[in-house]
């Protein structure tokens, strides 16, 4: 089955760190760019970060300098290291496949709650 | 800082036609932004409706169509049905691996 599965969410205090993981299966992971997209409770979608099949990365201004995305092609996995967490980072974080300039496959998401 | 704009909550009558738009606070939306549209109902994952401006995703009814109208991307629903009541988000590719979502439009069918 073609899928993405996130893990690693939880409750963390403001200023703390958390590492999210996303495991891909059912497709050739190395040929796709993968993104993190988040959705705060009751709010809209917000793009967070991107890692290309080449390993190149990019970030939204709201997380630049605090979050780091990486991928391990051997493990078909994507990671998001989140440092300096703030209350406004509270959201469901989705791992999302990028196929020819659109988001075509979404994981179920993992909830990150930052307590102030 | 550039923001992607979408309409506030919108309503359409059953069977009616509605056009939702996706703009930029600075500049125009063009095909080089590869506009895509996503439908999301509460508790569900986003579903891709339209990508690359006007290509319908697999299984999406042909009452959904995408275009560029003036300086914005547009999603038109022709013959709205009750189960089209959802939140609609557009996404724009800004280059260099950077994406932006609009704030979403909540569509009510009544």
General description of the model:
The complex is a heterodimer of chains A (116) and B (110). Chain A is mainly beta and 116 residues long. Chain A has strands at 3-7, 10-13, 18-25, 33-39, 45-51, 57-59, 67-72, 77-82, 91-98, 103-106, 110-115. Chain A contains no helices and eleven strands. In chain A, strands 2, 4, 5, 6, 9, 10 and 11 form a seven-stranded mixed beta sheet that branches. In chain A, strands 1-3-8-7 form a four-stranded antiparallel beta sheet, with no helix packed on it. The model of chain A has no long low-confidence stretch (mean pLDDT 97). In chain B, 0% of the residues lie in helices and 53% in strands. Chain B has strands at 4-6, 10-12, 17-24, 36-40, 47-51, 55-56, 64-69, 72-78, 86-95, 98-101, 105-109. The A-B interface holds A 33, 35, 37, 44-47, 50, 52, 56-58, 60-61, 94, 100-104, 106, 108-109 and B 1, 34, 36, 38, 40, 45-46, 48, 51-52, 57, 87, 89, 91, 93, 96-104.
Number of strands of chain A: 11
Oligomeric nature of the chains: heterodimer
Q: What is the N-to-C order of secondary-structure elements of chain A (H for helix, E for strand)?
A: EEEEEEEEEEE
SS content category of chain B: mainly beta
Helix content of chain A: under 10%
Report the average pLDDT across residues of chain A.
Answer: 97
């Amino acid at each position: 089955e073609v899928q993405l599965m996130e893990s690693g969410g939880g409750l963390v205090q403001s200023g703390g760190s958390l590492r999210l993981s996303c495991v891909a299966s059912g497709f050739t992971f190395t040929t796709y760019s993968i993104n993190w997209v988040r959705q705060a409770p009751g709010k809209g979608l917000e793009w967070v970060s991107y890692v290309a099949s080449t390993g190149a990365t990019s970030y939204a201004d709201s997380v630049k300098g605090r979050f780091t995305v990486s991928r391990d092609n051997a493990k078909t996995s994507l990671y998001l290291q989140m440092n300096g967490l703030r209350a406004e980072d509270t959201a469901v974080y989705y791992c999302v496949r990028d196929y020819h300039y659109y988001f075509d496959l979404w994981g179920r998401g993992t909830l990150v709650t930052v307590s102030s | 800082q550039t923001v992607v704009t979408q309409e506030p909550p919108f309503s359409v009558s059953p069977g009616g036609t509605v056009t939702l738009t996706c703009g930029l606070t600075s500049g125009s939306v063009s095909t080089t932004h590869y506009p895509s549209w996503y439908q999301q109902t509460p508790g569900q994952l986003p579903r891709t409706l339209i990508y690359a401006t006007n290509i319908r995703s697999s299984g999406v009814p042909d009452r959904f169509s995408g275009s560029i109208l003036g300086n914005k991307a547009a999603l038109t629903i022709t013959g709205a049905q009750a189960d089209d009541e959802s939140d609609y988000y557009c996404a724009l590719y800004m280059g260099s691996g950077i994406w932006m979502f609009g704030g979403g439009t909540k569509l009510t069918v009544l």
